[in-house]
Amino acid sequence: MPVHTSRRPPAPEPGAPGRVPPILPHRAGPGGRGPGGAKRRAGRRDPLWARLTLIFGAVLMMTSGVAIVGVKAIIGQATSSIDQGNLLGDAGKTRAEGGKNLAGPIDMLLLGVDARKTWAADDVRSDTIIILHIPATHDQAYLISIPRDTEAHIPPFEKSGYRGGVDKINAAFQAGARNGGGWEGGAQLMAKTIKGMTGIGFDGAAIINFGGFKKIIDALGTVRICVSHEVKSKHMSYVDGKPMWNADAEKLGKPMTQVVHKKGCREMKGWEALDFARQRYGLPNSDYDRQQNQQQLIKAMAKKATEKGMLTNPIKLNQLIKAAGESLILDTHGVSIGDFIFTLKGVTGNDVVALRTNGGTYATNANNRESLNNLSMRMFDAVKEDTLADFVVANPAVLSTRKSA
Predict the structure, then answer these.
(1) Is the N end or the C end of the chain the one with fewer CB atoms within 10 Å?
(2) In angstroms, what CA-CA distances link 51 with 10, 35, 60, 62, 75?
(3) Which of these ranges, 8-12, 118-122, 276-280, 315-319, has the smallest mean pLDDT?
(4) Terminal-residue alpha carbon distance, the chain
(5) In angstroms, rounded to a whole number, what is the distance separating the alpha carbons of residues 58 and 212?
(6) Which H or E run includes 252?
(7) Pairing between β-strand 141-145 and β-strand 352-355 as defined by DSSP bridges
(8) pTM of the full predicted structure?
(9) Closest CA to 127 of 108, 147, 152
(10) Sheet holding 257-261, edge to edge
(11) Which tens digit of pLDDT belongs to each residue from 46-73?
(12) Inter-axis angle of helices 286-305 and 48-56, to 10 degrees?
C-alpha cells in the first residue's frame, strides 16, 4: 500500500494509488514511577478505541457506535486508570515548534521498559525506543524505531546527578532514573537525548511496561504472530510442560526444556507472544529484527482488539481497560487525553506505517560503535519538516518489510 503526502486531501481507500501499507510499545511505584508503571470497514468508522490502541500501543477503550456527543467524557472515563506524569521535561515542543497546538503535526516518544518485580526501579534501561509521527493531516501515522545500542551524547541531568557522557542511547533512561529520578526522570533524559540527536521536539510520551502487555493479550485471548526465523528463547523454559522464567525454573531443580519459537504463523498466548518479541539473540539482524517483531506484536494486538464483538463485550472491555491501566504511564504535554485522542480520530489501522533505520541492519561510526546513517538522519529531518510521506515515497528502503500477522 502506498503512502500519501502530508497536507494532501483526505486519503483514498487502502490499496488506492498514493498510499503505503501500515503497523505500533507500570504502574507507578515509590520513587517516581517505578515498575509495576483496524481496518476501515465500508459504511462506518472505526471505534476510537481502535485508534487509541494503535497510537499508544495499548488497549484503553470505548465501545463502537458511540455518538460524537459525550465522546471526550467517555474517553476520560475509559482512560482514568492510566498513570500520567511529566515524561518530557524540557524536550517538549517549544512555542516556535508548535507548542501545545495539536492542529499541526504530532510527535510522540514511546519507550518500552522490560521491568520485573525483582529489579530496582532505578536500574532499568529502555530497550524499545519509538518515535511516532502523525502529519498535520492527522490521517496517517509512522513508527520509527531507534536502535538501543546507538551511540549517543547524553546530556547532564541535575535531577539524578548525572554529569553527562557518551554511551548507548538506552543508557539515558537508566542515567535519568537513578538516585531518585525514577521513571519520570528516565523518560525526561531520554527525550532530551533524542531531541539533541534528531532535533525532534515532542507533543507527548508514553512509558510502556512490556510485562503489562501480557495482561492485555490475555484479555484479548490470543494474537496471531508470524515467526520468520526460528529462535530459541534466552529467557524462558518449560518445566512439567509449564512455561517459566529461567530464573524461577532453576529454583525448582527439575528438568528444563528451552522454549523454541518455530517458523510459521499461529495464534500465541500472552506469554509466548511477549517472549518472542523480547528475543534478539539468534536472529539474523539481532535488535533490528526484534524491533520488527515488536511492531508486529502491536499490530496483532490492535487487530484482535477491533475484531467483531471484542469492544462491545462489557466483561472483555473492562478487562482491557484494567490491563491498559497497568501497562502505561502517559504524558500528553498538558493537553487533556480526551482532546489528544479526539484530534487523532482520523487515524485508522490501515494508516499506520512502520519505518526502519539503517536499512534494518547495523551501521557503525569511526569509533566502531552503532550509529544512525545519513539516510536515517534525513528521515528525522523529514519528521521535523512534516514531509515524511514524500521522503518515504522517494526512499522506499526505509519501509519495514517484515511479514505481519
Answers:
(1) N
(2) 17, 26, 10, 10, 12
(3) 8-12
(4) 16
(5) 9
(6) helix 246-252
(7) parallel
(8) 0.73
(9) 147
(10) 242-245, 231-239, 257-261
(11) 444 444 444 444 333 332 333 333 445 5
(12) 170
The owner of cell 519495514 is: 400
At residue 346, the pLDDT reads 67
Q: Quick one: CA dihedral 213, 214, 216, 217, positive or negative?
A: positive
Give the three cell numbers for residue 34.
Answer: 517505578
User: Please, what is the average pLDDT of the chain?
Assistant: 76
What are the cell numbers at 391?
521522503
- CB-based contact 184:35 (threshold 8 Å): no
Closest CA to 321 of 67, 107, 53, 117: 53
CA pair distance 172, 190, nearest whole angstrom: 5
CA angle 194–202–101, rounded 5-degree value: 160
Dist CA 402 CA 228 (whole Å): 8
The torsion region of residue 57 among left (phi > 0), alpha (psi -120 to 50) and beta comes to left
pLDDT for the residue numbered 292: 82
Residue 371, amino acid: S
Cα dihedral 317, 322, 328, 330 sign: positive
CA distances from 375 to 134, 151, 399 (A): 20, 17, 12
Nearest to 235 by CA among 270, 278, 205: 278
Q: Closest Cα partner for 204 from 99, 303, 325?
A: 99
Residues contacting 341, CB < 8 A, separation 6+: 48, 51, 52, 55, 75, 79
Contact 57, 366 (CB under 8 A): no
Topology given in CATH for the domain delimited by 48-221+325-398 = Nucleotidyltransferase; domain 5 (3.30.420)
> 3-class SS at 145?
strand
Q: What is the DSSP string of 11-78?
A: PPPTTSTT-----------TTTS-------BTTBPPPHHHHHHHHHSS-----TT--STTHHHHHHHH
Ordered by start, the domain boundaries in the chain are 48-221+325-398
Q: How far apart are CA 404 and CA 39, in angstroms?
A: 14
